[in-house]
Amino acid sequence: MKNLKKEFDRLRKQNVQFIAVSNSEWYSLFKDEIRNSIAIEGIFANRNELLDVLERNKKTDSQKTAAILGYFEAASFAYEYANNLFKEKEFKLRLSDIKQIHTLLMRYEKQIGTFEGSLGDFRIKDVQVVESRFSSLKAHFINETMRLFVKWINHKLSDPAVDAVELATSSHILFETIHPFRDGNGRVGRILLSFLLIGCGYVNIAIKGTAKEHRNKYYDALEIGDDQSELLLRTIEKGKKVTIKDIDRHLENSNIDLLNKIIKERLTDALERLKSKDVIAFNKDVLLPLRDVARFYNYSPDYLRNLINKGKLRAQRKGKLWYVRIRDIEKYLAGLSG
């Protein structure tokens, strides 16, 4: 994995916007991640439906639209934030980060009524995960356990010799076994997995999920690896005091090989894709969130929003956010210079 990390470091040095929607090849990877991750949850969107929602300002089935927009906004927030923290050598995880991912992920489903829980809040009732062989943590213990989960991750991150991929793998299995939210745990967990990878200098990954065989392989990897996580949760439910060392002891005995292999394969695939084209090139037809356009061109978001309202800058609205094409902002700037 050291060689893989070196390759990602090299790519980062070539392009300051390594992880950004404006990087056309990374954006292609990101779209694949969205399509595959929601497919794992049984929401199937083909490439055209994905593009309709993200780039053509069209809508498809309301549940698909809500899932696509939610994932796009939640992951965009998480990955940009993790990337900035990595560049400043300040990367760590906060409990509020996990809750914010859930809030952004589920808010459109909340609007259309397919999600009835509280955005960003841990569940207050026990649940049985459908078609799974594990028992999630009882609701009474979730808040305290999630605080310990975050503390454990940050403790691991403080070790310069930590294997970031193994940490991402183990933490993903533990998170999914805890199952802290009423709904959205799978997608939040996969975004969190990529958040950790980016924060440690790698890149987000697209775990395959559009084909049944790939979904089953991913589910099997979680099932194989969750025995020790379950033992840990049952210990917590007995009221015993659990420490960071206890988490380490349990997870060191977990069989994470299959999931770790999947993650490494997807990282390798991402690397090859990013190396295959000029990652410095910008896709001028891609839609960028207004905040990104403002940062790239040194304008305030309020100023650009005012231009949109006056009809001077073309933009598209998706949910609560405005999006602008690089081509359109450059056309506006060319008009000013002319």
Q: Can you characterise this structure?
A:
Helices cover 62% and strands 3% of the residues. By secondary structure, it is mainly alpha-helical. The chain has two domains: 2-119 and 137-276, Orthogonal Bundle (Fic-like fold); 287-337. Strands 1-3-2 form a three-stranded antiparallel beta sheet. Helix 2 crosses helix 4 (62-87). It is globular and about 65 Å long. The termini are far apart. The model has no long low-confidence stretch (mean pLDDT 90).
Helices and strands in order:
Layout: H1 2-14, H2 24-40, H3 47-54, H4 62-87, H5 95-112, H6 142-157, H7 164-178, H8 185-199, H9 212-225, H10 227-237, H11 244-252, H12 257-276, E1 287-289, H13 290-297, H14 301-309, E2 316-318, E3 321-325, H15 326-337
